[in-house]
Amino acid sequence: MHVQLTDEERAFRDEVRAFFRDRFPEDIRAKQMNGVPLTRDDYVRWQKILYEQGWAAINWPVEHGGTGWKPVQHYIFANEIAAANAPDMVPFGVKMVAPVIYTFGNEAQQQRFLPDILASNVWWCQGYSEPGAGSDLASLKTRADRDGDHYVVNGTKTWTTLGQYADWIFSLVRTSSDVARRQEGISFLLIDMSTPGVTVKPIITIEGEHEVNEVHFENVRVPVENLVGEEGKGWTYGKVLLQHERTNIAGVARSKYRVARLREKIARPVHGAPPLSEDRNFLRKLAAVETELHALEFTELRTLAAVAVGKAPGPESSILKIKGTEIQQAIDHLFVEAAGYYALPYLPQQYAADFPVDERVGDGNETLASLRYFNNRKASIYGGSNEIQKNIISKHVLGL
Amino acid sequence: MDFSISDEQSMLADSVSRFIDNDYDFERRMRIAESDERFSPEVWQTCAELGWTAMPFSEADGGFDGGAVELMLIMEQFGRGLVVEPYLANVVLAGGVLKRAANAEQKGRWLARIIDGSLQAALAFAEPQARYDLGNVATRAERDGGGWRLHGTKTLVLNGADAGLLVVPARTAGEQADTAGISLFAVDAAADGVVRRGYKTVDAHAAAEITLDGVAVGASDLLGDEDAGFEALAGAVDDATLAVCAEAVGIMQTMHDKTVDYAKQRVQFGVPIGSFQALQHRMVDMLMECEQTRSLLLRAVMLREDDSPDAARALSELKYTIGTAGRRVAQEAVQLHGGMGVTWELDIAHYFKRMTAIDLLFGNADWHLDRAAGLR
């Protein structure tokens, strides 16, 4: 057992670090620092740079364009991309639908969809939740009725993140109601968003941004060839995908980055006030969060090590999701506390590129602290709420 | 010991409650909050007509002689309705300083117009370097003939952009953090040298950053005695602290009630989610937090009405609890509403934002626990 990187691993880290330093576009970096939402073009431009480097799909099998990295390399990459404050690949294509397609899709589907996902030519979004099917996902009602060579899809999906940018949506749809278990009538369908009958309606979230959507399907005709795997097996495929999603949303490296930024912020006197690092109350709270974070980092490393010896990420990934989001939210609130009264002005527009920097209210981007805190209350709700994760652990880990 | 309220107090509570139910539903509140206007002049006029703007002032000053109980009754309902009109800033803060420090002539000039609803006023209680320390005043008042010139920067001046009158604490003596040596000035917001940057806050209230660059004030603009303004300032801010705590209790109760209602209606896995024991216990925890916080509110109000030596500590215990128990209730209400809880469309999100702001106003949980512990 040892914690240091080997010479080889250090060389890899330096390579990754240099790449983010040299290739991450400056204008996107500025937006990230100032909490300005990225445009579709920003994401795609950055993802194509990752693609050129061969790092768009680091988790994929090598034969489809993955890296074949060892767990420690994934760990290093996650830390470096977070330390550069560069965005991860938008997950819906590369991390969510692609594993389902390369695991359960047929040859034709793999050839048709995977290259465009890898190269960020096509933007995907996720059609899982419905207004009446949140935590109880299997109660979903969106129907896909067979009509010759097509399915006819009717229903509503919700919380569709960045669906306003999407070309395609992968959806869980009901192909049969005549089944013993509700889960058995569900299929995994790929739908072109430009098909007549698809409409996207914005949902504005608590802090005022347009990040998620409702997607409506009205008599949308989808070719049968867009069904992944077998009809009625979509639930099984979808669960595999959710486990991939959960390991991704622990966000340990991002939290480490944010704690480092917070430590920098409180070390400086701002607005002529003494630095917050002289406040014992604040330091103790920060240390408590960091303790949790260090524990989670090693829990995640233990999980990655298990995966490396051939175990699939199992229900333990729920632990990462719960603890990871709790830690993120605790850090979010510490930023609010650190900003004090400067957490209160609602001025997201003052971080736009054309806004004069010396007219901004607050030090750095501190007025964004509360907006981030508000928005990220979603973290304990999405991806299977933390309550659902606890149900998964109690059932599948504890056997209760 | 008597928890009952008088008939007059009961009528006041009913009148504010009816106003919220009939004239200030969530849709109207959001129309006001999302408009370019920072509050509704029509609603403000109603507040004056119903006597609420007169409530905390003595009969001699033209008010209704209300105390901590009346303030609590009004603010708890304002919390339930998420009222964005500047009652706190105008009546409790600016009015609170004027009623304590102003002379008869000054009261006639300003307080009378706050009471009749025709004047918007603001108290510049915060400075950038001070965090929550009221006595930390770097704004200087320099002698200039028979008056002074003010130099300094004020942050988060609630109602600051709309106020015609700014009540400004400024240092006439002593070191930056001394409570002695602070004087209070009434400043015409349109005066030369006043630069205001107005904005809405994350909870849809309104505030401004204000720079004072050599603003001239005369002897008749000094409120109370020179160098001795801190007591009136602190008194008004204590009133305001109690006010936002009462508002927060109204919000906590509303969030709790709405969460329980939602849990009874929202069906997942074929049953209302309120039938799950794991969630039931959490709503019971929320209820206990609400009840304990309400008890601290009543205790703080009663000790304040009695001018008890324990009143200040009771107020800090209450504010600490608003920042801790209140935050937990707010977070749980959002969590138990699921994705809907983080949408702009649902009122829960807006209650959550107001609770977050209230935690910070006039000192957050840590600040007030330090005060309760005698560390500050």
Describe the structure.
- The complex is a heterodimer of chains A (400) and B (376).
- Chain A has 400 residues and is α+β, with helices and mostly antiparallel strands.
- In chain A, the strands form 2 sheets. Chain A has a 4-stranded mixed β-sheet with strand order 1-4-5-8. Chain A has a 4-stranded antiparallel β-sheet with strand order 2-3-7-6, with no helix packed on it.
- Helices cover 45% and strands 14% of the residues of chain A.
- In chain A, a hairpin with a 2-residue loop joins β2 and β3.
- Chain B has 376 residues and is α+β, with helices and mostly antiparallel strands.
- The two termini of chain B are 31 Å apart.
- The mean pLDDT of chain B is 97.
Give a short overview.
The complex is a heterodimer of chains A (400) and B (376). By secondary structure, chain A is an alpha+beta fold.
